[in-house]
């Protein structure tokens, strides 16, 4: 019999019982597993993308890969449940790529994770690894095209009818290529993870145990996925049950999905365990509620179930994004910003800040944690370069390197932990300090600062016996920054408040502590003049400073602000490394 005739026969066989199958519409165990897979990976992909604070290749590759897996499981659920020949073929052709692209993304994710661990010292075979990732994407696209448009990987002309009113497609002559593809890329990803584990084990990072746990989950999930991804094509090729392969893949991918989401966000400075459990519980409850209501009033089918699951996940995960869009219709720009910050604040409070690689580690001496002012004798006068006073003499600019830190990843991987030199001050740390100073008047923004993970903050938290969460960490960070700004105040009280000795203090204290910006200084000055309280010495001093702020050149003002925040960054960095800290004054 000709292939075209077989296809027509398959159609005709299903015509008689299609209506009956639709009326029964009972989900098989395989379809239920596939629906669970779709729901799991669709939510993981959206969750990971929405929790990404800034573009990160590691998180992006993980989110896209999880989204591809959601499409794979959803398409497989349709193929295992549909009684429509045309729908079966269309879904098979148009989603064939989802069997290959996520595996290429898996290799890419593992390679990025390994590079992240290695930091500034790539492995000797880094070029070969990059070439392998590019080749993996190219081969995935090639196999996707062959499988969707030709009969070489699967034979669209040989589709047989099954007793349960579904279809089965036969393997094509080139189908073993898919087995080789899955094997090669799975082994490549596991190799990168094992190398990353070796490097992490060889270093003394503060978050080494946390990262090793995530790497173990990735390796374990990768092994389960590898076993299942080999079983599925072999089972399809040899015509044996696919259920063990599906269960292995599903179990492995669940572990991988959690580990990918958690590991990617850990490298972004967020421990999302509480938020992860909270969000997952809410989504599962809503999905079950919606499906239960619809099942009670009507009859569910696979397409409807997939639609409901996707609708619940998309609408409730992106609820804040939708409210941001609606806010544009009903609120002013200032109100929109405040409402957006409030929602971001609520979300970020579900995570804990982490310093995964310990680049700002320090051992803070307990005796230095007492809230007492520094002796006046320890204050030094500003140097000829115009540096402000601080608790210890400030090094010259030549002693403030801006090169990337010598991190644990720069050291050779060995079987024994390596002693790490103290990291050097980085440009990123300076920028974080500037942003934190700017955010002193905005708790929602300050609560997102990476400086919350500083050991100085952790030590103060433990010393004061406060519960460890972002609210308390943000409060302590604010206290620390205020003390560092106060340390910029000259010790020579005879110096005029608008003199050069006060400029670093003034450009930070008034805009960010008193919340009087340079642009608002003139209007505040006029308000003070209208009150007529010129006899008060404090008012007279404030008027002098406000007049100075209103008249200083804009470029000069911002240059002094950057210099002042950099001085605080140097002081904070050194204190964080040595354990010398300026606490409550």
List keywords for this structure.
Rhopdopsin 7-helix transmembrane proteins; two-stranded antiparallel ribbon; two-stranded antiparallel sheet; mainly alpha; 21 helices; 585 residues; 4 strands; disordered C terminus; 65% helix
Task: Describe the secondary structure blueprint for this structure.
Blueprint: H1 3-24, H2 29-50, H3 57-81, H4 85-94, H5 101-118, H6 126-149, E1 154-161, E2 167-171, H7 176-201, H8 208-238, H9 243-267, E3 270-271, H10 273-297, H11 302-317, H12 319-330, H13 333-348, E4 352-353, H14 427-438, H15 443-446, H16 455-463, H17 470-486, H18 503-513, H19 518-531, H20 537-551, H21 554-578
Antiparallel strand pairs: 1-2, 3-4
Helix pairs in contact: 2-3, 2-9, 2-11, 3-4, 3-5, 3-9, 5-6, 5-7, 6-7, 7-8, 8-9, 10-11, 12-13, 14-21, 16-17, 18-21, 19-20
In short:
The protein has 585 residues and is mostly helical. The protein has 21 helices and 4 strands.
Number of helices: 21
Strand content: under 5%
Sheet with most strands: 2 strands, antiparallel
- Looking at the structure, what is the overall shape? elongated
Number of strands: 4
Query: In CATH terms, what is the fold-level topology of the largest domain?
Result: Rhopdopsin 7-helix transmembrane proteins
Radius of gyration: 31 Å
Please identify the top-level CATH class of the largest domain. Mainly Alpha
Question: Which structural category do the helix and sheet elements fall into?
Answer: mainly alpha
- What number is the mean pLDDT? 75
Helical residue percent band: 55-70%
**CA-CA gap between termini:** 92 Å
- Specify the CATH architecture of the largest domain: Up-down Bundle
